[in-house]
Amino acid sequence: xxxxVALSGWDCEVWAERFRSLLPDRDVVALGEPFDxxxxxxxxxxxHPPGALAGLPNLAAIFSLGAGxxxxxxxxxxxxxxxxxxxxxxxxGRMSEYVVLHALMxxxxxxxxxxxxxxxxxxxxxxQPSAREVRVGVMGLGELGRDAARKLAIMGFxxxxxxxxxxxxxxxxxYSGADGLDAFLARTDILVVLLPLxxxxxxILNEDLFSRLAQDGRLGGPVxxxxxxxxxxxxxxxxxxxxxxxxKAASLDVFVEEPxxxxxxxxxxxxxxxxxxxxxMSAPDAIAGQIAQQxxxxxxxxxxxxxxxxxxGY
Length: 314
Fold this sequence. Notes:
Blueprint: E1 2-7, H1 12-22, E2 27-30, E3 40-46, E4 61-64, H2 70-73, E5 83-84, H3 89-107, H4 110-118, E6 135-139, H5 143-154, E7 158-163, E8 173-176, H6 177-186, E9 190-193, H7 207-211, E10 223-226, H8 235-244, E11 249-252, E12 272-274, H9 284-299
Parallel strand pairs: 1-2, 1-3, 3-4, 4-5, 6-7, 6-9, 7-8, 9-10, 10-11, 11-12
């Protein structure tokens, strides 16, 4: 049985070597190498070229190397095999680190002080609200969102969560569906977005949503932190909301076009923190080990875990 490593933008050979060490009893090939398509039983993917997984008649499972699976579902020639998403403590912890870091940076006005440092400016207005005075709303209460919400609460923030369907997180106020969205947004000073990218969520971060965020909070205006997917955001609306004061600031780890073009207006804005889609990088040691174990368990007759519902998109 052969495992196919099909990646774009990442080092295929690093991942292939890791899988070879974990699965020494089978062939592991990287996309671009010659291989017998009939022998491929498993594929691991991150943004593989469209159609690269077509024509694999014995494919039993496709593993996404990232938390999201929209990069797979966008391939209209994707085989009808189970898609398995990654749920990994290492990846989950990294995402929560990013979310807590950026929530604290906006709470403590760190972008402002970095800009003042460059100008050798000592500002006597050093007021800082406390975390308990700031309401954080987490959109998306999957594995990543629930963990981030818990850790934000530990830091003292007043945390609530929103999801498409009802989800309960101990100690966190929960809202759900279209009926709960307005109330959720109205009590949110920092909006953390960890939604999957689906037909229902594409472009959800738009001018209409920003206008419903709380405007009476202790930060002087709402803040957006998007570490989910670039396709969730209408970038022209983000820029307009920042200019009009509907948003005070933003931290953006994901973009519609990546890498972010050098002429993007986001680069030059002091009210935007840009990071290069590194909020939660998939580490080969952690992720490959989990996939290898799933393969062995599956071949021993156990069900695959974290299988994606293609109709829902996650």
